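Quick illustration for those who missed Monday's session on complexes.
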Amino acid sequence: MGRQLPVIQPQTFRCDPHELCEGAACCRTPETDPALSLADYFRLSRHTGLPMSRIWHDNGNAHIYFAEQNRFLFTLGLLHEPCPYLTGDLKCGVYEMRPRACAEFPYLMFNRRPEALEDYSSYRCLQNVSLSTEQAAYAEKLYELLVQEGQTEMQIFWGNMPAYFHVPHLGVFFEMAAKAFDITIGKDPNMTKSRTRQLVSNLRDMDNYAKDWIHEKRIDANFYKSALNHVVFSLVEDEIAQRFEGLKDTDLKPFEETTRRLIELNASLERTKCK
Ligand code: SF4
Ligand code: SF4
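Prediction with iron/sulfur cluster bound:
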C-alpha cells in the first residue's frame, strides 16, 4: 500500500493588519464603505455623546444599492475615504461600538454572499481562506441581529416605506447632480469641507465617464452606484437629520437590548481588526 498523502487543512481567515495589509486597508477604501443601520447611529451616539443628527451631518453618507433597472435603494452610510473614525495610528476610534458592518466584515460574505468576495480579490487576508466553525456561527448570529434591527428601523425611521431613487437616464442623474452641487456650494461656498471637495471631484469623474458613455453607448449600474452616494447625501441631508431629531427615546429602546447582545457577541470572537 502506498503512503498516505498528508491532509492539507484550509487556512482559517485571520485579520492581521500588520502582516496581511498595509494597516486597516478595509477602513480606508471606498469599495468597503459600510451601510450603517439606525442602530449603528444609536450606538455611535451613545459612544461619542453626540446626537445622531450631528454624526449624520459630520460623518454620514448615503449608501446606495442597485435594486433593479433604474431603481436604487437608499440607506444610511458612512463617509469612508478613509473612515472618519480611523485614528492616526490606524486604529478604530469607536472599536467597542463600531458599526455592525465593520464587525461582520468579511464573515458575512463567506456565509451569505460568497460572490461578493470576488470584489476583494486583491485583499491578501481573503485569499484561499475559509471560516472556522466559530467564525461562521458568529456571522449567523450577527445576521440575526441585522434582521431584527432592520425591522425596527423600517418601522420607526422609514415608516415601512423603503427609500428608492429612480434614475431612468443620464439626464435625470445630471439634474440631481446639479441640484446637489448648488445645495452643497450654498452651504460651503469656500469648499472648506472634505465632503464638498469629494462631491466636486466625484462629479468631475462622472462627467468624464458620461462622455465615454455617450461615445460607447453603454452604461452600467456601477456607474450610478459610485456616482450617487455623495449626490444623494446632499439632496437628503437635511431631511434625514430631521428624522433623527424626531426620534423619541422610547422608539430607540429596542436597540438597548440588541446592543447588549452585540457587545457580548463581539467579545466572544477574538480578532484584531483595527483594535
Ligand atoms: S480584515 Fe484585517 S487584514 Fe484584512 S484588510 Fe481589513 S484590517 Fe487588513
Ligand atoms: S472598523 Fe472603525 S475605523 Fe474601520 S471603518 Fe469601521 S468604524 Fe471606521
